[in-house]
């Protein structure tokens, strides 16, 4: 392995094994009521262009009452379209339970139509050096709750500490 050393750095050529995981999760966005999991922090009336909301959406492994809490999608979303129909999202999916507990994925993209894609632009823990894509589809929109099915395709390189 070739390397270069300086007073404060070392550069080495490495070969790292990459892994892929595919998973399906469900994010619950509760916009109103006692259990809402987002809050508008920069309001504008009527709701539309320029509104910013913080979110701590819950993420489950299914949609029914027996679904397990996997983690939380914590970040923000911003209405960045003049017509008020598209929201830009930036959040960390933090795994609190299960196989990937203690790891996270960093996602960004837009929520607009009922279906779309978000980019995976990083991760921590087991998901170090993550990249990939999440295809989302709205599966429920009722009583102030939106549920989206998230189909992940994640490429990552686990690093040993």
From TrEMBL:
Q: What species is this protein from? A: Sorghum bicolor (Sorghum)
What the protein does?
Dirigent proteins impart stereoselectivity on the phenoxy radical-coupling reaction, yielding optically active lignans from two molecules of coniferyl alcohol in the biosynthesis of lignans, flavonolignans, and alkaloids and thus plays a central role in plant secondary metabolism.
Q: Where in the cell is it found?
A: Secreted, Extracellular space, Apoplast
Assigned protein family:
Belongs to the plant dirigent protein family.
Instruction: Return one Gene Ontology term, BP aspect.
Output: phenylpropanoid biosynthetic process
This entry carries the following GO cellular component terms, namely: apoplast
Question: Could you tell me the keywords of this UniProt record?
Answer: Apoplast, Secreted
Subunit composition?
Homodimer.
Q: Which Pfam families match?
A: Dirigent
Q: Mind telling me what this protein is named?
A: Dirigent protein
Record's Gene3D superfamilies? Allene oxide cyclase-like (2.40.480.10)
């Amino acid at each position: 392995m070739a390397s270069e050393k300086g007073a404060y750095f070392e550069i080495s050529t490495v070969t790292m094994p990459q892994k892929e995981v595919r998973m399906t999760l469900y994010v619950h966005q509760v916009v109103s009521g006692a259990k809402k999991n987002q809050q508008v922090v920069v309001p504008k009336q009527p709701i539309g262009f320029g509104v910013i909301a913080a979110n701590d959406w819950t993420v489950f492994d299914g949609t029914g009452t027996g679904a397990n809490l996997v983690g939380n999608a914590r970040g923000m979303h911003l209405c960045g379209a003049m017509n008020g129909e598209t929201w830009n999202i930036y959040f960390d999916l933090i795994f609190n339970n299960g196989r990937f507990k203690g790891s996270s994925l960093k996602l960004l993209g837009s929520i607009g139509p009922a279906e779309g894609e978000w980019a995976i632009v990083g991760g921590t823990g087991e998901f170090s050096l993550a990249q990939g894509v999440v295809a989302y589809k709205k599966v429920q929109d009722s009583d102030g709750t939106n549920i989206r099915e998230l189909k992940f395709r994640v490429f990552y390189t686990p690093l040993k500490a």
